[in-house]
Amino acid sequence: MGRPPCCDKESVKKGPWTPEEDLVLVSYVQEHGPGNWRAVPANTGLLRCSKSCRLRWTNYLRPGIRRGGFSDQEDRLIVHLQALLGNRWAAIASYLPDRTDNDVKNYWNTHLKKKLLAQQQQQLRASPSPPKGQWELKLQTDINLARRALRDALSIDAGPPGMAVAGSAAPAPSAGPAAPQQAYALTARSVDRMMLDGWAAAAPAAGRRSCVVGGTVVIPAPATTPGAAESASRSSSELTTAECSASISSASDQRAAPVADHQLLASEENNYTASAVQQGEVPLSAIESWLLEDAGAGEQKLAHDGPLLDAALHSFGF
DNA sequence: AAGCTCACCAACCGCGGTTTC
DNA sequence: GGAAACCGCGGTTGGTGAGCT
Predict the structure, then answer these.
(1) Which nucleotides of B are covered by protein (CB under 7 A)?
(2) Helix (H) or strand (E) holding A126
(3) pLDDT (tens digit, 9 = 90+) per residue, A147-172?
(4) Domains with residue ranges and CATH for chain A
C-alpha cells in the first residue's frame, strides 16, 4: 500500500503565496505556534497543502530569517562545510545563523558551485600538473595520518550525549563589513515581520540555538528551564541582541539542531568544561575555530580552496 | 522595442525517518 | 508489531526578471 498523498491535490492551490495567504498563515502560527501543520489548512481555510504551509513558514515567514546578501565569510563557511558534510544543507545551515537550508542550497547551486568551478579551472590553467589526488597521496605516504582521520570519522557516532552544541561559527550579522540584505523587503513581508516581532519575543523557546558573542558560543537556556521562561517572558526591549536573535530563532524553529552533525564537527571538543556549559558558554569547537580562523585568513585561503578535498584534509589535520 | 537566453529562487515532489494509534 | 500519519530533508522544477542581441 503506497503512501497516500499529503493532501487532496485537486483542491489545493499551488504556486507563489500571496500576501493575504502569508498573513493568514502568520496569524495562525502567531496564535497556535508552529507545528501540527496538518491542521493549518483546515483551521485557516487556506487552500494549501500542509506541507506547503510548513515550507512557507520555515523558509520564508519564520522570524529571524536573513535572506540573500551572503558575506564572503559565509561563502567560505559554506564551501568548507559542504566539503565536509556533503549536500546536507540542513546541517550546513545550522552553522549559519538565520539562514535556511533552502537558501543555502540555492546559494550553493547558483553561486558557490560555479565560483569553485571557475577557481578550479583557473588553477588547472595556471599549473600544468594540478594538485589532484592529494588525499590519496597523503594516504599512501602517511598511513598513520590516514588511520587517525578514519578513527576520527568513525568516532562521530560514539560521541557523548549532550553535545548538542548548536555552534554558530559565523559571525554575528552586525559584525560583517557590509550589512547583509535584510529579509522582508517587500511590503507584505514587512507586515508579517511587524506582526511577528511582538510574538516572537514572547514565544517560548522550543529549541536551542546559539550565537557567537565575543568569540564564545552562547547557548540560550533550554525552553524547559526557568531561565528560558524568564527570558521569554521579558519584553523584547529588555533582551540583548544575542538573546533576541537566539530566542527569535529558537522560538519557532521546529528543527532541532542536528546534533550528530555538530558532534561530527565537534569531535575534538570534549574538553569543554561542565561549568561552562552550565553557564551557557561553550568554547568554540576545534572545527569551528578552524572555520573562523580560516575565514579570517581571508582571500589567501579562498584562492587555495581549489580542490574541495583540501578542506577535508585540513579538517583532519593534514 | 521585441525576442531570446540565462540566472535566480520560491515552491513542489518524493523519499525516508519518526511518532502515534 | 505494524500500519498510518506526520514531519524533515534534498533534489528538482517552473516562474520571473535582468541582460543581451
Answers:
(1) 7-16
(2) helix A113-126
(3) 454 444 344 333 333 333 333 333 33
(4) 12-61 (1.10.10.60), 72-163+287-315 (no CATH), 173-259 (no CATH)
